[in-house]
Each structure stands twice: as structure tokens, then as C-alpha cells.
Design brief:
2 copies of one chain form a homodimer.
Chain A lengths: L14 E4 L6 H12 L5 E2 L2 E2 L1 E4 L2 H6 L30 H9 L9 E2 L32 H22 L7 E12 L11 E3 L16 E5 L4 E3 L23 E11 L12
Parallel strand pairs in A: 1-4, 5-6
Antiparallel strand pairs in A: 2-3, 6-10, 7-8, 8-9
Helix pairs in contact in A: 1-4, 3-4
Chain lengths: 271, 271
């Protein structure tokens, strides 16, 4: 074994937030449950703190009251840079592949909001990760998605525990999806919808969309075709919360990335 | 042929309302579309009038602003009784079966709110019918459901046209679902959810639920079983809008009803 001595600070302060949007029920009810039974978030080296992020919106079962909380963390000074030796969130995917059942497999989305800087809640943490579960209806708590979200969080806490113990993680390659831009719904001159997502695109998040394939069905019966000149991978297709943001779907490109190894830290290296 | 002379007044004043709840997008956008292109609602003997029922809630994309509009029409004096010779809504089901494609088949739900009297918008009309489409997410316009709703409305208008022309409709039998009572979610002492609809019940509207079968999955992992002593047919299972009404699902019973014939009216009988 050829482990280089790498400074690696254990993660001790971990928060799990839910209900940033008050009508996303998995997060709301998981956090409420963990506030009653915090043992589920405890590991030998740390205890994650459950946080109900937006109690007012949660009480109203609405995405937000005055403004979208998850678009609000925009000030540069709120952001800390990750210290050397903390884990890249992508390491989690390998952890998930190796230690958990296939039902926990995820897509990894790199979201760089063009020109605006970070604005989401997890961006204020040193090592934030956002779990998106869906498509799922607003205001509905489905047992299958609740269980999956719960298992995903447990898997992440297990990874942090292994990281804190100094465990080695091998290098690997993986596909991730990087946002390119967004596409609005077709609209009338007055701004009303003139159609909606085409049945051939609906429910096909993360699948390839080829030039010439239909993306919208107009109320007049006509199809609108995708006019790009390369394959893209639409995500957040027909998301209820994004109508007001003029987003029918996000276009992403699939790219291959290399995730470096995290070498083992032996007990002699830990201060 | 043995047609009895039956007084049958043609239906001339027909309204099609949408957006009674501002986040039920099929109705909202069909009505908006028909307001622009009213020809779709015209038939030789009448023109149906499109009505956007709750513009304020529609603009906010919320079920309602101050109170649920579709629980508001409670005053007895608002109700007119159907005059003799107008069609029973159940006639429509036969019409649907015979003239339309199988994709338009529906379940017929007889809803008698216990002790409260009628309260919904269609109850103020002489011959009201409410089309429910779902389950579907609030705030999302799906092209498949939009097309289906549009075709269902067209089928109803076609039926009214045939009725107005004096066409005969044969007697038939059909199954309908009659509401028995409602079941709330499992809750903690504080009123929070203690679990949600069981995966074996989720998405199984109008299917038989037998005594001893699971209805809820508690966050603790335990199952809650249906303790009734007869088969029921749950509907409105895990409907987002009904959490606040403390309804996880409605129990219905399936009953067989006979729908009498509407005899033909010949031109000599029409005044």
C-alpha cells in the first residue's frame, strides 16, 4: 500500500435540512421525524443535526411565502471555501455503488447558474450536497420516495463516518450531467401557455433528446421539435415549481469525470 | 318501436368551468384555450360557454386564496331541481362506451357529503357533472391528461347534441362507486403525520381493499391494516389537497345501478 499522508480533518458538524420548500414533503416529514428520533442521524464520530429550513412555508404547505428561499443565498461572503482534504461529494457515488443496494443509484447534476453565482441553501456549507427526489407531486408524501430519501441520507452519513475513520476510497470515473441552459414553455403573445411538454418528452428526465425530436405539444395540435444540433439530456422536465421561472426543462450535457482517490489515513497519521 | 311521448326540453344553456381550483391545470388551460377558440365548444343546437371559475387562485396557481371555492356552494336556495325529462348524467357513460374510444372510459363516483348538503360548483346547475382527472400533480400540465380531458368534454357535448336532437338511448346497467366515509392519515399526539399511505395502496384507486390489507406505513416502519369487515374501493388516495381536510382516502362501495332508457323523440312530438 502506498498511502501518502494527506491532511484530512474529520467532519464533526453536519446538518441535514428539509423543508427548504414547504411543499416538498419527503424532506419536511423526514426532518420532523428526526427531530423526534435523532438517533437515526447519529454515527460514532458525529451527530448530524436535523433542521426544518422554512417552518412558515411548511405550515402553509407552499414552496415559499414571500420569496424562494432556495434562491436566496446569493451573497458571496456567505460562502466558505472547502478546506484541503475534505471529501468531494462525487466520492459518495462510488460509496453508494459499492455499499448500498442498486435502488439507491442516483444521477449527479452539476448546476452552475449562469452569471448569478450560487444561491441555494447547501451552497453556504463547506461541503454541501442537495438531494433531489422526483418527479413527485407537490404536497404529497409517498412512502416509496420517503423510504428512498431516508436511505440516501443514511448512506451519506455512513460515508462521512468512513471518511472520518480515515478509510481509503479508490479513484474512479463516472458520468455526470452539467446544465447548459433552460427552455421555456411555448407561450401566446399574452404570456399564457400555448402548449405543454410533449408526451414523448414527459417523464424522460436524464434520457437523450436528439435534434428533431418533439419537445412540446401545442394546444392547436402541432408539435414543436428540438432544433439544437447535438444530443442533450433534459432534466426537471415539467416541474410544477418552475412554471413561474419560465423553465419547461433544463438542458444538460453528459460528461465523463475522473474522481481522484482518497488514500487511507492510518492511526499514526491522525493527530 | 314503442316510443312513449316524453317531454324533453333541449339543453340550450351549457357552461364548462375550469380552474375552480387554481392549481388544477387541465381545467385552467382548457378554459383559457376555449376562451380564445370558442368554436370547439359549439354544436348545432347550442354553444357551451367557457368559464374560468377562480381567476385569483389561478393567477396564484393555488387551490384557493381564502377558502375552498368548491366547498362554498352550500346554500339550499342556490339549488334548482332537475326538470322532468332532462338527461341523467349516467346516460353519458353509455354514450362514452358506445361512441368513443376505450381510452375515455371513466369511473362514476356518487358523492353524498354526510350531513352537509351539496357544496360544489356543479351542484348549482340543473344538471351538473364534475370531471375528475387524476391522480395528477398540482401545478403541472401534462399533455396526455389535457388531451383526455378535452376529449371527455367533447364527448359530453356530443351527447347533449344527440339528446337535443331527440335521439333514443337504451336502458343499461353499470357499476358506480358510492362514498361511505373518509379515513385520515395516522398522526402523532401533536397532529403531525406519523406515517403515510402504504405502497400497496398508493396508486390503486378504485381497486378492492380487503380487510387485513395494509393502508398506512408508519415512519417507525410498522404497517397499519384495514380493519373493516367488508371490501371497499378507496378513491382520492393520497391527494395533496386533502391533507388539510384530514382525508388520506375516501372509502367507497361498488353498487350496480340500472339506468332507464330515454326514448326517441320524433319530430311530430317536438313542439
Amino acid at each position: 500500500m502506498c498511502s501518502l499522508p494527506v491532511p484530512r480533518e474529520p467532519l464533526r458538524r453536519v446538518a441535514v435540512t428539509g423543508g427548504t420548500h414547504g411543499n416538498e414533503m419527503c424532506g419536511v416529514h423526514l426532518v420532523r421525524h428526526w427531530l423526534q428520533t435523532p438517533g437515526e442521524l447519529q454515527r460514532p464520530s458525529f451527530s448530524a443535526m436535523p433542521v426544518l429550513a422554512n417552518p412558515a412555508a411548511t405550515a402553509a404547505c407552499r414552496r415559499y411565502i414571500d420569496r424562494d428561499l432556495n434562491r436566496t443565498f446569493t451573497l458571496t461572503f456567505l460562502k466558505g471555501l472547502p478546506p484541503a482534504g475534505t471529501p468531494d461529494s462525487l466520492e459518495l457515488s462510488n460509496q453508494g455503488r459499492e455499499l448500498q443496494n442498486p435502488g439507491l443509484s442516483c444521477h449527479f447534476l452539476q448546476y452552475d447558474p449562469a452569471g448569478t453565482g450560487s444561491y441555494s441553501l447547501e451552497s453556504v456549507s463547506k461541503n454541501g450536497i442537495c438531494l433531489e427526489m422526483g418527479p413527485q407531486p407537490q404536497g404529497v408524501l409517498r412512502a416509496d420516495l420517503f423510504s428512498r430519501m431516508r436511505a440516501l441520507v443514511a448512506s451519506i452519513l455512513d460515508f462521512i463516518e468512513l471518511f472520518n475513520q480515515g478509510m481509503a476510497f479508490p479513484a474512479f470515473e463516472m458520468d455526470i450531467y452539467r446544465t447548459v441552459d433552460s427552455v421555456d414553455f411555448p407561450r401566446t403573445a399574452d404570456g399564457d401557455l400555448a402548449g405543454t411538454v410533449h408526451p414523448q418528452l414527459q417523464d424522460h428526465d436524464f434520457e437523450p433528446l436528439r435534434p428533431g425530436e418533439p419537445i412540446f405539444k401545442l394546444f392547436s395540435g402541432e408539435d414543436v421539435l428540438y432544433e439544437g444540433n447535438s444530443i442533450v439530456y433534459p432534466v426537471f422536465i415539467n416541474e410544477a415549481a418552475y412554471y413561474e421561472k419560465h423553465v419547461a426543462f433544463l438542458k444538460t450535457e453528459k460528461i465523463r469525470v475522473s474522481v481522484p482517490a482518497l488514500p487511507e489515513i492510518t492511526s499514526t497519521l491522525v493527530p
